[in-house]
Design goal:
With about 550 residues, this protein is of the alpha+beta class. It is built from 19 helices and 18 strands. About 50% of the residues lie in helices and about 20% in strands. The strands form five sheets. The chain has a six-stranded mixed β-sheet, sandwiched between helices. Strands 4-5-3-6 form a four-stranded antiparallel β-sheet, with helices on both faces. A four-stranded parallel β-sheet has the order 8-7-9-10, with helices on both faces. Helix 15 links the parallel strand 9 and strand 10. About 55% of the residues are buried.
Length: about 550
C-alpha cells in the first residue's frame, strides 16, 4: 500500500492539504476494502465495490503524486488548482465499476470549485479590500458541486446509494459554512451527516433492506470524507466506516440469487468525444441496459453501463467518438466471486480491435484492447488478470511482440498465488481458436494443452497496406500496395484487397483446412466478405467460413485456417 501521509491540523485549503486528503483516503479505502466488498448487493451483488473504489482512489493518488514529483523539474503543482485537477484526472482515467465512476465525478466536482475558486464571500485584506475566499465556504461549495455532478452523471439516480450520502454531506457542509465554520468544521459536519445518511440507506433501498446491509458505495464515500476531516483537523475518525459501521450488517444472502435477471455484462471504456456526441451516447446506452454512468468532460469521458449486448455498447462508443481501454466483465464470474471464493479458471485475451474485444467478452473472456503502434503495459495486463479473479488464468497474448509483457504480468500474478499459463498465440485468430475449445470444467493442464493445440493448428494470415517502399520476402513493395502475410511473412503483394485476400486464402488452403475465419477491419465493406466466402465455397466445398467484424483498431483483414 502507498505511504500514508500524516495529517497536520490546518485551516487552509492548499495543494498539500489535497495531497494529504488523497493519501489518507486511499489508506482508509484499503483498510475497508474487503469489508465493503462483502456487503456489496446493489446494483449488482458482485462483491467488488470496495476494490473498485480503492483502485479508483489509487489511480487518482498516483496522478497527484506524479504531479508533485515534478517539483524537481521546476513544474510542481504550486497551486491548489493544479493539485485538484491532477487528482480528479487520475480518478477519471482509473475509475472502476459503478462506484468508482461516481467517485471520479465527485472528485471532478470538487476540482471544478477548488480549482476555479468562484465568486464566494472573501476575507478583507489589510487594506479592507476583498481578499482570498473564505476556505470553509469554498469547501462547502466544492462538496455541493460534487454531489450535483454525481447525480447528473447517473442516468437514473436512486436514493439509498452513495448519491444520497453525498447529498447529505453537501447539505451539512453548507450549513456549517453558513455558520462561519472553518474547513475542518465543514469537513466534520459533512462526515457526520454522511455517516448518518449511510445508516438510513437500508430503509431507502429495498435490496439493502432485504440483505440487512448499508450501501457499499456509501461506506466508501464515508471513508473518503473521514479522510478529508482527518487531513484538515489532524484527528483520526473515531469510527471506521466498515467495520464499526453505523448499523449491524449480517452476512448477505447468496448474491447469485439476486439480480439474476439483470444484464449479463459490465462494459467500461474511456471515450474521446464532444459533449453533444456524449448526449446522444447516453440516450443510446440507456436503451441498451442499466446502471449507466457517464462522467468527465472537456472531451474525455469515462463510460460505465450494464448490458446484455456488450458489442452494441462498444459500437455506440465508436459512433460517438474514440473509445479505448475497453473492459468487458461477465457478471456470472463476478457473482461466483461474490460468494467469497475465486472462480476456478478464467481466460484473459489481448485483442487488436473493439469488435474482437466484444466478441471475446461475450465468450466469457476478460479482454485487453491494444491499438496499433502502442505497447502493451504490463500493469494493464496484470490488472486484467486481477479483474478475472480466478485461481487459474489462461492468458492469450495475441502477438509475438506482446508475449514479453504477458510473461511479466503472469509472473506478477503467480506471486499472488494465481496459476497462470501463457499460450503463445501469435494472432487474434489463434486466440479465437483457443477460446473456442476452452473447457473450464476440465483440468487446468488438459485445458491448456487443448487450447495450445487449437492455436497451433490455426494458420494465420493478415492483409495490410504498405506505408513505404520496402524489401519483403515476396519482393519489393511500393507505398499503397496491399500486402498478404501468412504466418507473419509477406507472401503476396497486390493492388486490390479482395484479390490479394483470395491469393492468400488459396495458399493457406493448399495444405488443407476445415474452417476459415475472416475478421474484417472497420473500413472493409461486407461485399468483400461475401466474395471471399463465395471463393472458399466454390473452390473448397468441405470448408466452412465464419466472418466477424474486428471493429476499430483492427487490421483490414485477418484470416485463420484451422
Amino acid at each position: 500500500m502507498p505511504h500514508e501521509l500524516q495529517p497536520q491540523a490546518t485551516d487552509e485549503l492548499d495543494a498539500e492539504a489535497v495531497r494529504t486528503w488523497s493519501s489518507l483516503a486511499l489508506a482508509a479505502l484499503g483498510r475497508a476494502r474487503e469489508d465493503i466488498d462483502a456487503i456489496n448487493v446493489y446494483p449488482v451483488a458482485d462483491a467488488d465495490t470496495g476494490t473498485n473504489l480503492y483502485l479508483t482512489a489509487e489511480s487518482a493518488d498516483l496522478a497527484l503524486t506524479e504531479a508533485f514529483a515534478k517539483v524537481t523539474e521546476g513544474t510542481a503543482p504550486t497551486s491548489l488548482d493544479q493539485a485538484v485537477r491532477a487528482w480528479a484526472h487520475g480518478a477519471l482515467l482509473g475509475a472502476r465499476g459503478n462506484s468508482g465512476t461516481i467517485l471520479a465525478q465527485l472528485l471532478r466536482g470538487v476540482a471544478e470549485v477548488l480549482g476555479e475558486q468562484p465568486d464566494e464571500p472573501r476575507r478583507p485584506d489589510e487594506h479592507g479590500q476583498p481578499g482570498e475566499p473564505v476556505p470553509g465556504r469554498l469547501l462547502a461549495r466544492a462538496l455541493t458541486r460534487a454531489a450535483q455532478e454525481a447525480y447528473a452523471a447517473v442516468a437514473h439516480p436512486v436514493e439509498g446509494t452513495m448519491l444520497t450520502v453525498a447529498g447529505a454531506a453537501a447539505r451539512a457542509g453548507e450549513a456549517a459554512a453558513a455558520a462561519a465554520g472553518s474547513p475542518a468544521n465543514v469537513a466534520r459536519a459533512a462526515y457526520d451527516a454522511a455517516r448518518a445518511a449511510l445508516a438510513e440507506t437500508p430503509g431507502q433501498l429495498a435490496a439493502l433492506g432485504r440483505a440487512g446491509v448499508v450501501d457499499a458505495g456509501g461506506c466508501g464515500l464515508v471513508a473518503v470524507l473521514g479522510a478529508l476531516w482527518q487531513a484538515l483537523s489532524g484527528q483520526a475518525p473515531a469510527v471506521e466506516p466498515v467495520p464499526g459501521r453505523a448499523v449491524p450488517v449480517p452476512q448477505p444472502p447468496d448474491p447469485c440469487e439476486q439480480e439474476a435477471d439483470g444484464p449479463a455484462y459490465e462494459v467500461v471504456y474511456l471515450l474521446e468525444a464532444s459533449e453533444e456526441a456524449v448526449g446522444h451516447l447516453r440516450e443510446r446506452l440507456d436503451g441498451l441496459g442499466d446502471s449507466l454512468v457517464v462522467v468527465g468532460g472537456d472531451g474525455l469521458w469515462n463510460v460505465h453501463v450494464h448490458v446484455d449486448d456488450p458489442g452494441a455498447a462498444v459500437e455506440a462508443g465508436v459512433v460517438a467518438g474514440r473509445p479505448y481501454r475497453i473492459r468487458i466483465t461477465h457478471f456470472g464470474d463476478e457473482r461466483r466471486r461474490a460468494r467469497g471464493a475465486r472462480a476456478q479458471r478464467a481466460v484473459v485475451a489481448v485483442v487488436p480491435g473493439e469488435g474482437l474485444a466484444a466478441l471475446c467478452g461475450e465468450a466469457g473472456a476478460t479482454t485487453v484492447l491494444v491499438r496499433p503502434g502502442e505497447p502493451l503495459a504490463v500493469a494493464e495486463l496484470a490488472d486484467a488478470i486481477r479483474r478475472a479473479h480466478a485461481r487459474e488464468v489462461v492468458l492469450l497474448p495475441g502477438g509475438a511482440e506482446l508475449r514479453p509483457a504477458a510473461a511479466a504480468a503472469a509472473e506478477q500474478a503467480r506471486v499472488d498465488g494465481v496459476r497462470v499459463a501463457v499460450i503463445p498465440t501469435r494472432s487474434a485468430v489463434q486466440g479465437l481458436a483457443a477460446l473456442a475449445v476452452h473447457d473450464p470444467d476440465g483440468t487446468f493442464d488438459e485445458d491448456v494443452v487443448a487450447m495450445t493445440a487449437a492455436a497451433g493448428a490455426t494458420r494465420y494470415g493478415e492483409l495490410a497496406v504498405a506505408e513505404r517502399q520496402s524489401f519483403t520476402s515476396a519482393g519489393i513493395c511500393q507505398a499503397g500496395d496491399v500486402l498478404g502475410l501468412i504466418d507473419g511473412d509477406v507472401a503476396v503483394i497486390g493492388s486490390d484487397l479482395t484479390e490479394t485476400a483470395e491469393a492468400v486464402l488459396e495458399r493457406m488452403l493448399g495444405s488443407g483446412g476445415e474452417l476459415v475465419t475472416l475478421v474484417l477491419g472497420p473500413e472493409v465493406p461486407d461485399a468483400v466478405a461475401e466474395r471471399l466466402e463465395a471463393y472458399v465455397l466454390h473452390g473448397h466445398l468441405a470448408v466452412d467460413t465464419v466472418t466477424y467484424r474486428g471493429g476499430r483498431y483492427s487490421a483490414p483483414l485477418l484470416i485463420g485456417v484451422e
